[in-house]
Amino acid sequence: MSPFSRFIVAALLLPFTLAAPKSLSKRDLDTSKHCGDQDRTDVGQYTLSTDTHGKSQDGEGRSCYQVHSLDGTKVAWENDWQWARADGSVKAFTYLNLNQGLNKQLSAIQSIQATWHYTYQDGDSGQRGFKKDTFVTIPWRLTTSSSSGGAVANEIRIFLGNVHVPLVGTSVASTVKIGSDNSNWDVYKGNKDDGTVVYSFQINIGRSDYDYTLRTEFDGDLNWFIKYLTSNQGLSADQYLTAIQGGSEAVGGTVTVNTSSYSVVVN
């Protein structure tokens, strides 16, 4: 093959080479364990953060996270923490924050493809949520604003896990079927102290004697929940999507949430 022909072949293959998904090796990825009060780690299109805004209620508590791998948009990571319940408030929120595809009007969003597979371990009892003094939620948290990048007007919480934590507001709908699998969700609506409207979805899969729900696998479209709210609960489709975060909110107990696959892509 002539040098010119080799150049043509290389030029034709270049776009496919650039488009190939990239996996970061552990050498390029920060896989160390972080236990700081406000630690942040960049992980591909996300930032992994801990916000210990309630630490004053338990000065000896701690939350830690560790990234295990990144493959394209899929992250494997772990969050473990130990906090006293104290006043019952959230002590820390450790979460992956999406940094791409945001500040679109809700009406312009075609899909928000999401995957979350995790295991939950109650370190006190060694059981899945049975310990009465464990309080934790495992939510997606989406925020919207009346302008691109503006102040938060609405917060949408989609709880895959809730162990003993009451939701903001009151029930506005129950056993609503959402998604291609027709999962049942209970819907709540309320307000935070600053006036932010909070919509909460809690998976309805039955409760134990200790009032907990856990759905450890989700593969679907978060836009299903937005469309339900714009069609049924008064959320304006003119709002802008300003944040998508997924993680665990620690209230009390000793817990490990080990995520084997997490991904969010806005289209």
Automatic annotation (TrEMBL):
InterPro entries attached to this UniProt entry: ConA-like_dom_sf, GH11/12, GH12
| Annotated stretches, region: Disordered | 27-61
Q: Pfam families, per this entry?
A: Glyco_hydro_12
GO biological process annotation, one example: polysaccharide catabolic process
- What terms describe the molecular function in GO for this protein? cellulase activity
Leader peptide range in chain numbering: 1-19
Q: Which residues form a coiled coil?
A: none
Q: Which UniProt keywords apply?
A: Carbohydrate metabolism, Glycosidase, Hydrolase, Polysaccharide degradation, Signal
UniProt feature, compositional bias: Basic and acidic residues: 27-42, 52-61
Which family does the similarity line name?
Belongs to the glycosyl hydrolase 12 (cellulase H) family.
Q: Which PANTHER family match?
A: BLR1656 PROTEIN, XYLOGLUCAN-SPECIFIC ENDO-BETA-1,4-GLUCANASE A
> How is this protein named in the record?
Glycoside hydrolase family 12 protein
